[in-house]
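Subgroup meeting minutes
Present: P.N., E.W., G.H.
Scribe: E.W.

1. P.N. recapped why we're keeping a running log of single-chain structure predictions: easier to compare across weeks, and new members can see raw inputs and outputs side by side.
2. G.H. added today's entry (151 aa).
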Amino acid sequence: MDRSASASAPPAASVAPAHRPGLPPAGTAAPTAAGPPGTSGAGCFGDGCAGRDPESTRCGRPHATTVAYRTVGTARVEVRHSRVCGAAWARVSGAAPGDVVAVSAAGATHERGVRSGDDDAYTLMVAVSDATDARACATLAGGLRGCTGPD
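Output recorded in log:
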């Protein structure tokens, strides 16, 4: 379900500017050096990761870094990227049930809603050649929406 078409644009003052690569976001560890694909213990690479869970495929910690983020209301939406998996996904934190996080790259999109009792969620992966190929968006239950990258 693509809720982006029905969500109204947020007021400019309610959404912080997107973080751009070059400066690590607060609370994010510096990227880790990893061996070439196939030597990391990750369970997939590129198109083989598309539509799969980043944690169960071992593409997440310690192989993932936050490459872009944006604050949407009180939530933070991030693009997470795993170089060793050639894939990216979106994560939202500080969210509420009913909020939705989405990732898109090269025509593929995955989204997931925040479940009752949780304040975060992450999507399935999309294959990417470069970390900047992916875009993450959060749509809050109240309609406020924001994305990483250009609007």
